[in-house]
């Protein structure tokens, strides 16, 4: 479930001030959330400063308290080396100079627990290092050559049956999907 549907947030919230819910909608959501004690937000890198402020404001309105996040405990998860917020700043940045002067940023209420052990590529150190270098923008020639060595031509795709496929165009995706679907009918 998205934050927008969960808390009835407008999709274009970055451009406009958050409009309070009318009492009927607020009460209806409040009834659903009456036993809510913990909110877990995944992919936090995609939640911008403004959206985060609106989540707080909406929970305060629904739970009828001015306490941060309406007294709901919040855990956020994610990797800031992944997707950025759309049309907004990161949640730990101020969206304007006024906020930097007067706001008590919600982000400061959180304690960071950084996971540093690589699990997905733990058995392939050189690949893990290459991915880390990509994230930091410090790719080496060795990293580039490693990634190039893993390119598989479309003629050899059958060799790697369970691999995730990345294509350059929709036409290539369509051709591959057609080929796979045709093989299922035989």
State the total count of DSSP E strands. Answer: 2
Read across the widest sheet, the strand sequence of neighbours is: 1-2
Total individual domains: 2
Q: How helix-rich are the residues, as a percent range? A: 25-40%
The SSE string, one letter per element, is HHEHEHHHH
Rg is 22 Å
Shape: extended
Overall SS class: mainly alpha
Question: What is the terminal separation in angstroms?
Answer: 38 Å
Pfam families: PIF1 (PF05970)
InterPro entries: DNA_helicase_pif1-like_DEAD, P-loop_NTPase, PIF1_helicase
GO molecular function: 5'-3' DNA helicase activity; ATP binding; hydrolase activity
Family: Belongs to the helicase family.
How would you sum up this structure, described in words?
The chain has 186 residues and is mainly α. The protein folds into 2 domains: 3-109, no CATH class; 125-184, no CATH class. The protein is built from 7 helices and 2 strands, in the order ααβαβαααα. The protein has helices spanning 3-6, 23-32, 49-63, 97-102, 125-136, 141-148, 170-184, and strands at 38-41, 73-76. The chain has a two-stranded parallel ribbon with strand order 1-2. α3 (49-63) links the parallel β1 (38-41) and β2. α5 (125-136) packs across α6 (141-148). 10% of the residues are buried. InterPro entries: DNA_helicase_pif1-like_DEAD (IPR010285), P-loop_NTPase (IPR027417), PIF1_helicase (IPR051055). It comes from Rotaria magnacalcarata. It catalyses: ATP + H2O = ADP + phosphate + H(+). Keywords: ATP-binding, DNA damage, DNA recombination, DNA repair, Helicase, Hydrolase, Nucleotide-binding. One of its GO terms (biological process) is DNA repair.
